[in-house]
Amino acid sequence: MEATPIHLLPLFAVLFALFRLCKLLLRRRDQCCFMLDYECYKATEDRKLDTELCANIILRNKNLGLEEYKFLLQTIVSSGIGEETYAPTNVIMGREERPLLSDALQEMDDILFDTLDKLFARTGINPADIDILVVNVSLLSTVPSLTSRIANRYRLKSDVKSFNLSGMGCSASVVAIDLVQHLFKSHKKAFAVVVSTESMGPNWYCGKERSMMLSNCLFRSGGCAMLLTNDRGMRHRAILKLKCMVRTHMGSDQEAYECCMQVEDELGYRGFRLTKGLKKAAAKALTKNLMVLLPKVLPFWDLIRCWYRGIASSAGLNLNKGIQHFCIHPGGRAVIEGVGKSLGLSEHDIEPARMALHRFGNTSAGGLWYVLGYMEAKKRLKKGDKILMISLGAGFKCNNCVWEVMRDLKDPNVWEDCIDSYPPKKQLNPFTEKYGWINDESVSFVRHYF
Question: Of 325, 327, 398, 413, which is the active-site residue?
Answer without folding.
Answer: 325
